[in-house]
Amino acid sequence: MSAKEKAKAKAEQILGKAVQETGRIRRKRTTEAKGAALGLRGKARERKEKAKDVFKR
Prior knowledge:
The chain is mainly alpha-helical. It contains 2 helices and no strands. α1 (3-26) runs antiparallel to α2. The radius of gyration is 13 Å and the shape is elongated. It starts with a helix and ends with a helix.
């Protein structure tokens, strides 16, 4: 997995957690849901890159 894509995936996961926690604190369900979605998108990106590495072998 390229370092750039790996960093992008981790950044999305961290940002998603932060947004989700902000939503919890402010009691905004939509913000909390957006944070959860962003975190899941980061995890999906990471899994995609790992799968690409497996097929490169």
